[in-house]
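Can anyone check this?
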Amino acid sequence: MGGFTIFPHLPIEIRLRIWLFSVPDDEAEICLPWPGSVPNSLYAYTNPLYTLPCQPLTVDVVFPVAMHVCRESRSVVQDSQRSGVFFRASQAAGCPTPFRHFRPELDVLYLGDQGIFFMDMFVWPENSVFDSARPYDRGQQSQWRKFLETLKLTRRFAVATTNIPGNCRMIKEFFTRVWTFNDPPRPLRFEFCYVVPTTKNITEMDPDNVHAAFVPPGRRCRLANIRESDWGGILVPTNSMRSNPPQTLKKLVTQTIVEIRAVQEGRGLGARRKVDGPEIMDIVDVTAGTFLEYQHDGSWTEVCATRMYSSEKMYIPEPLLAERPDPEVQRVHDADIELRLVPWDEGNDTDYSDDE
């Protein structure tokens, strides 16, 4: 390219078209619904919208290379209507950062410490605070149904591993209903990723710093795949290290898949009526991964080993609805770069906990 001296002399229309060709196609990204404390909001019955994340769902994307070439190429990329690349303010980055809307057929939707209960919202909508909300609010119902539609169309899910045991029936019912409610042709495959906070040896860490709950990265992140052959060597905290020994990722995956299949085959207590369709776990690809966060030097690093916390002692405060920024205007995850953990107020008469 160093010898391609004719480029500056090409007609402007051709140069602009070449710059547009340099904008990469969409790649699979990880979507983190925000705030992370929903849908088990402490304010759910004050306003049902507290149980929903900020919408539309968005994902961070890489800066196109053309942003760093020259003023002309940068201006082309920054013209969102022409390039298809959109930008939003980021206080942490100190400049606008690129993003796009969540694509349910491509991206991975992360359901974290509380987010797994979005599955419950989908499986048993009659129990939702929206269904029981009075008086009927058309705007609230619209936001709720919009989010349920997103869940229905999503094909790739990631869940914090420690939240899967005890919720196997809900998980099975969720995938069954997503498959059933989709119009033909129905989904051929789903992906279900078990997410661990770290692949490091947690027995070498201070036991007081090892907990089942963790906060995903606040900066741009991705899921790094963990090979199945390595699952037996990765320990997952199931509670406090001092009261409960960790289990291997392989054991947790094996146990929960067996339990899900038991529900599927009707061997569990209160098993629901079998519906027409495939054995749901036969079309679910089980994977495992951990978060990597993008660093200023361009590297990707595990950070969640330092973002674990005890949900019995601490919680993540949720912003009021009026304080939630528009995710298309401001990067909402900037708020989670620094851990915002608050001790549970023992003097509060309201009986709430992270595990409800």
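Reply from J.R.: I decoded it. The mean pLDDT is 87.
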